[in-house]
Amino acid sequence: MKTRMTEMFGLDVPIFAFSHCRDVVVEATRAGGMGVLGTTRVTPEQLEMELKWIDDHTDGRPYALDLALPQKMGEVHMLHERETTLPPEHVAFVDRILRDAGIPELPAHEREQLAEYASGYRLTAQGGMELIEVALRHPQIKLVVSALGIAPKEMIDLLHAKGLKVGALIGSAKHAKNQVDAGIDVLIAQGMEAGAHSGSITSMVLWPQIVDAAAPVPVLAAGGIGRGRQMAAALALGCEGVWCGSIWLGTRESELSPDMKERFFAAGSEDAIQRRVFTGKQCRMLRSAFTDAWDAPGAPTPLPMPQQGLLVTEARARIERARRKEYMGYYVGQIVGDMKEETSTKGVIYDMLTEYSDAVEKLQQQMEAE
Amino acid sequence: MKTRMTEMFGLDVPIFAFSHCRDVVVEATRAGGMGVLGTTRVTPEQLEMELKWIDDHTDGRPYALDLALPQKMGEVHMLHERETTLPPEHVAFVDRILRDAGIPELPAHEREQLAEYASGYRLTAQGGMELIEVALRHPQIKLVVSALGIAPKEMIDLLHAKGLKVGALIGSAKHAKNQVDAGIDVLIAQGMEAGAHSGSITSMVLWPQIVDAAAPVPVLAAGGIGRGRQMAAALALGCEGVWCGSIWLGTRESELSPDMKERFFAAGSEDAIQRRVFTGKQCRMLRSAFTDAWDAPGAPTPLPMPQQGLLVTEARARIERARRKEYMGYYVGQIVGDMKEETSTKGVIYDMLTEYSDAVEKLQQQMEAE
Q: Which ipTM did the prediction report?
């Protein structure tokens, strides 16, 4: 098949597979789509290792990098400063949830490791440029996406100078013009049903609005896509390809623990709720005893980003370590309701293309019939 | 074109136009689709008049009737009992909003008229059967839809015995099986972006789930549809037609006041919010100073249905009469963001079919291209 996305990047199919897991990126890329490596909280050294591994397994095919680089992150603190820099009632509230649930502290060395890892919260444009420099040493990378807001101008200019394309996620047509003016080559229109940070407008309404507002810049559809009928719908709505995230979480290549996958397979679409509990920004995640605690009467209002992440990072690690499934959560979109058992990345793409093709043929027959 | 819906009802196009306005019903029916008259708070005598008028203008074509017949309405009271049957703090809160805004009382005779009209809140299965009896005297009616829950068995049996089809609106795949078991002929799958009462799952995710759960019962797509690309998406997702409501509110045939239309044309999709303010159940409506007052700190939680409706009915009438636009609201879906100027029902259908046809042709070209 052919869309402006397959042409722009030389893909067989216009399926973009966003994942923090390099195995998903590799499998999607090998299947003729475009793997997109998400790089929240990664050092340049770690990124170099990841990209090397992807290069070694993808036979020269194109893939992409997604940088969560907010332009402003506000005041940033280290995890060990949690008790001194956050409101005491918030700290006490989270501690009480865990104490009431009988979830133990982390062993000291794991707490230290986490503190080091969580220092990646220091995401800045400067840090982003260091990652870009690593990316530029890997010529299979053809696209860099800014997940939060407009990428810094020097970053866009540098990428363009090196022949890469730049993309950006948006959740409202209002933001299309600014992105287009900034020189973005591809917009990813993300509906509210998407996992992780998402807005209030649903894919069905949002995608054509962004397609029209961004024209002639091509648009990828994100939010609510896990199968071929949804891919056909995205193209019918004027998008030039699909950008999927949640659906890979249920594959064997996924980075999630078996416990977390099991919870996803048991969940319905209504269990993927929008809350500010994990990051301080509105985010779609699996409902859990932890999110329920924040919904209960008397619970405090979540802090802004990045303070809320600082507040709950260790709590989430303690819950994971204790394997307290009912408290475990993760970012996921409403298509979690369609995820019922472990799949493979290749299998998802194959099924998606088969169903897409059937859907388009049926549409054609319906239209031609008298 | 041809789908199982055009075949079931002998339509030219599988577009169902829900409206409380008989002019919209007539125009949509004449254009080859199926007008659906919504009948909240109508007496049998009023309904007889409406249907007679529709019959007289539709040349024998099929149309439909939508009954908002909840199976249980809880305790029902008359408007003049508002002060004595509702919590005093709720009554005082609404009165204060209006007083602070300087919105005057209704003249005595208008208040009486409203009280009489609002007595239609006494919606029951018995009342529904009286309306069905009226409908059965109008043989152009080929479909009766139950908007809230499963229709009473005797109603379904009676309609089937007379050769009519029965439909039902649902917002979750969980409800599909019960409806199918009850003998429903058509399901209307309504995504959260829809105007009026809506659930939490978006159209993109919900429609294919209901199509699969209801098979072989055909499904109409509702929520987020106002143009042809969305119609193509609905059919790609496996639906057999589309059910639109909000889009007709911006037509010249619409029942809305010019003031209210003007507010719609100025609104973005993010201004169509889900609240319990109008009816006590989660409903999508235009954001206003009135809904903002209920979102402010210290505002009471809305009452359950039907008490909340009893609480705010007169307030809404006072706001309308005073033409205080910033306080005016109405049920509308997220496609309000695409409604920019007054259109016509016929024009909307014509544009929808043109864009649908273009979208399907483009899909076919994309799939076949190498």
A: 0.95
The pLDDT tens digits of the residues spanning B122-141 come to 466 677 888 999 999 999 99
Beta bridge partners, A37, equal: A19, A65
CA A92 to each of CA A86, A105, A289, A314, B52: distance values in angstroms, whole numbers, following the listed order: 10, 14, 17, 13, 67
B193 at A interface, C-beta within 8 A: yes
pLDDT in tens, A19-64: 999 999 999 999 999 999 998 778 899 999 999 999 999 999 999 9
CATH H superfamily, domain A4-73+122-247+343-362:
Aldolase class I (3.20.20.70)
CB contact under 8 A, B232 and A173: no
User: Is A271 an 8 Å CB contact of chain B?
Assistant: no
Please name which of B208, B209, B157 lies closest in space to residue B182, comparing C-alpha atoms. Answer: B157
Tell me what the mean pLDDT of segment A159-176 comes to: 96
Query: Closest to A205 (Cβ–Cβ): which among B237, B335, B364?
Result: B335
State what percent of residues in chain B have pLDDT above 70.
95
Contact A334 B202 (CB under 8 A): yes
Q: What is the spatial order of strands in the sheet that B272-275 belongs to?
A: B196-197, B283-286, B272-275
Q: What is the DSSP letter of B60?
A: T
Task: Choose the closest CB to B233 out of A173, A200, A233.
Answer: A233
CATH 2.60.40.10 holds for B4-73+122-252+339-368 = no
